[in-house]
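In the design runs reported in the main text, the only information available to the sequence generator was the tokenized backbone. The following block is the verbatim input for one such run; it is reproduced so that readers can re-run the procedure and compare outputs position by position.
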């Protein structure tokens, strides 16, 4: 039977693990149990009673505190839940049972970094699958392309108008179809800078050269694109440029 000590042979390694990393290891250990219901003590006791090779007793409190964080993380993620009619006992959820392979776990890690709840429906459908495959630069490019297309359609501009020029014209503080109404000039200018800067930074470079993005960077930029897309569509809807704004997923 696999135990936590197979993954963390000493207390120092155990304490160095973050709640997510420890939680996913703990998920593996729980999945290996023969019983459908488990108790925290099932996994804690072997750490102190491993034929005199267990963790030092003076580290019991910090180890159990870190364990509690991971146990709670599993519940917060919907992977583990209190077993029905079993006080103090827990069982895996269907989601917890389904995450079996290393590929499943890696996909879960990636998906957690870019949750659907933060994304506009278009980006959840088109961009998130690219991100999940690890095509980070392509995903970011596509996300900001969706922003560009939505702004162009809302303003009824020609397809030849692209990138920062499109954004400057759409959000021009005096004449832009998508400019904010009823706010001071500096805020209207800031909105134009925001859209033009975002497109110039996140879409234009990838149109001309290879851009290597880390997973975290890509997720952050896609969430920014989602905000810009939602804001542009909402403004266009309020101004009557489009008939319906698409809410986030």
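Verbatim output:
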């Amino acid at each position: 039977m696999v135990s936590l000590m197979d993954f963390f042979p000493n207390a120092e390694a155990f304490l160095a693990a973050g709640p997510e990393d420890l939680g996913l290891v703990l998920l593996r250990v729980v999945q290996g149990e023969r019983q459908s219901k488990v108790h925290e003590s099932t996994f804690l006791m072997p750490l102190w009673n491993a034929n005199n090779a267990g963790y030092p007793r003076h580290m019991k409190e910090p180890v159990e505190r870190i364990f509690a964080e991971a146990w709670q993380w599993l519940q917060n993620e919907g992977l583990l839940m209190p077993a029905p009619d079993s006080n103090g006992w827990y069982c895996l959820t269907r989601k917890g049972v389904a995450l079996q392979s290393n590929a499943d776990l890696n996909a879960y890690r990636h998906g957690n970094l870019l949750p659907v709840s933060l994304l506009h429906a278009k980006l959840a459908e088109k961009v998130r699958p690219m991100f999940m495959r690890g095509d980070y630069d392509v995903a970011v490019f596509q996300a900001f392309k969706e922003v560009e297309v939505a702004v162009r359609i809302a303003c009824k501009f020609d397809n030849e108008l692209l990138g920062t020029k499109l954004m400057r014209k759409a959000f021009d503080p005096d004449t832009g179809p998508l400019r904010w109404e009823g706010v001071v000039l500096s805020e209207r200018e800031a909105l134009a800078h925001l859209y033009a800067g975002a497109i110039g930074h996140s879409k234009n470079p990838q149109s001309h050269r290879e851009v290597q993005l880390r997973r975290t960077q890509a997720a952050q930029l896609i969430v920014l694109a989602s905000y810009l897309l939602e804001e542009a569509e909402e403004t266009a809807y309020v101004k009557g440029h489009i008939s319906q704004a698409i809410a986030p997923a």
